[in-house]
């Protein structure tokens, strides 16, 4: 934190180094404690770079446990980063069958809940008509975005595939 306060930069190392994950968690917790938003953002960004290499590493359960023990529920930075990465990779058999990954799911109930929420969100999306004067929105299955089937907006009669519609963020 001292380096960040003097330089405005966050020192980090190789993203495939498993100890980097724990370092990111520690830095984030300190930044949270002292309310240093910029440092939290640096730690979260670097964590996102590192987590993709380490979802099945031996320290993954400890990383998850540390995140959920060192942050409050309202502080979503690292919680969202780890649960989103887990949800994206859970379809991979290597991840799903990995004992360390499963240990994290088993031991940290809030992590398991966050992963399940993310998976449920991926099943349905809200999209809106791309015509700026039209405010029509619809909840569809995520798979329908890539169906290639032409749809018609019931309000403005715009005709296109859903892939041209805008996804509404929560």
For this entry, give a set of tags.
170 residues; mainly alpha; 2 domains; three-stranded antiparallel sheet; two-stranded antiparallel sheet; 8 helices; 54% helix
Can you describe this structure?
The chain has 170 residues and is mainly α. The chain has two domains: 2-122, no CATH class; 129-167, no CATH class. 54% of the residues lie in helices and 11% in strands. The strands form two sheets. The chain has a three-stranded antiparallel β-sheet. A two-stranded antiparallel ribbon has the order 3-4. The two termini are 32 Å apart. The mean pLDDT is 88. InterPro entries: SKP1/BTB/POZ_sf.
Count of DSSP strands: 5
Identify the overall geometry: globular
Classification by helices and strands:
mainly alpha
Strand content: 5-15%
Helix content: 40-55%
What's the rounded overall pLDDT mean?
88
Main sheet overview: 3 strands, antiparallel
The number of domains: 2
Straight-line N-to-C gap: 32 Å
pLDDT < 50 stretches:
none
Strand ordering within the main sheet: 2-1-5
SSE run: HHHHHHHHEEEEE
Radius of gyration: 20 Å
